[in-house]
Amino acid sequence: MMTQEENNELTQVGPGTPMGAVLRHYWYPVALVSELDEFPVKQARLLGENWAVFKTGDGGYGIVDERCPHRGASMVYGIVEGDGLRCGYHGWKFDTDGTCVDILAEPDSSPVFRADCGIRAGKAQELGGLVWAYLGDGPAPELPRYEAYVMDGVRDIGHCVIPCNWLQIMENAVDPYHVEALHGNYFEFIAEQTGMAMPGSFGGNKHEKVAFDPFEHGIIKRRLLVGQDEESDDWKIGHPLVFPYKMWVGGNGVFQMQIRVPVDDTHTNMMFYTVHAPEGAEIPDDPPCVDYPIEWIRDDGTYIVDYIEGQDIMAWVTQGDVADRTTEKLTKSDVGVVACRRMYRDAVAAVAAGKDPVAVVREPHDVIKLPLERSKFGRGAEFATEWIDNGSMRYSPIAEEMKKLHTDAEARRQQLAAEAEG
Fold first, then answer.
1. Which of 7, 102, 126, 296 is most buried by a 10 A CB count?
2. How far apart are CA 392 and CA 415, in angstroms?
3. What is the pLDDT of residues 316-341, one digit of tens each?
């Protein structure tokens, strides 16, 4: 149980808040590359503030405060011109560093005057089909090149904005018992009531024990299910909460970074960033990167709970805009949630002391590989196809192609194994 003050400290993300200071040490996806290819400027709301993100004429990216410092008009309706963005109202132009480089009505204005007319700017760059932004002070850290964003495979990005605080979503990432209850028992109940087939990969996952190990990028979650031994991937390897707002999960040729972007205190932009790369698959030379909205609520306000992530969203959102942790009753099964909150508190203390929090990457690198079980729940290739059918990927425009990719890869693996034995 927390006090209200403690709850506020961990959940509020705006400027001047303790957690807001922590979160401004990291890069966030603020647009899809495809969005800015279609139209080069869009609004981005992030950490309680409004921004204009844009693609420059030379293919770079910038992000500036939505409000022009001249008269406050929205830069979302600006004009991309060369390496900068010109306000549509009076034509003040700013480069990607936020410097005012031209004033339409005063072409002879001095650099000294313009130096005092700049706009607040962050840093922006592309990685893995997403445009990322850094809004913090001081030298920007490296944009972490986690394996998901640079590995070979077919990319599939489902997304939605949901009306709840980011922290209750992240606590779910270190709560393995919900898989047994929500995606097992509850899923079976829904399947019985609706007449749908219960996916075998998600039923009967009874936990014997769980563990949580802090490491340099967050917390590794481990589970041992009934019928498994400690050599199983779920226990020996596990998968991580990637501090402060992601979870790396997958198995059987599906690799997924779940991205939970804090839009503001009561909204979170969910992205299910999935790479399909099963062993033995023939990946195209120029594999697609598709994106699509996922459905989670009906017109009558009821939640769509006949698929995995829809069940999660129901559980997150029904806790309230910001979960009330002053009345909760934690038990020993919530040890992962306690560890998660401790890591966030430690990050607040580190930043208050002038230090980087965990998972801020300062060294240049080619790729960061994170722990990830390859055989999820000890299931075979059917795990991948059942996840596509019974998860948010069912909304993907290439869902059928992805299932075929996995089944063809499985057939190829079996063929090679038979040839090796023969």
1. 296
2. 31
3. 999 999 999 999 999 999 999 999 99
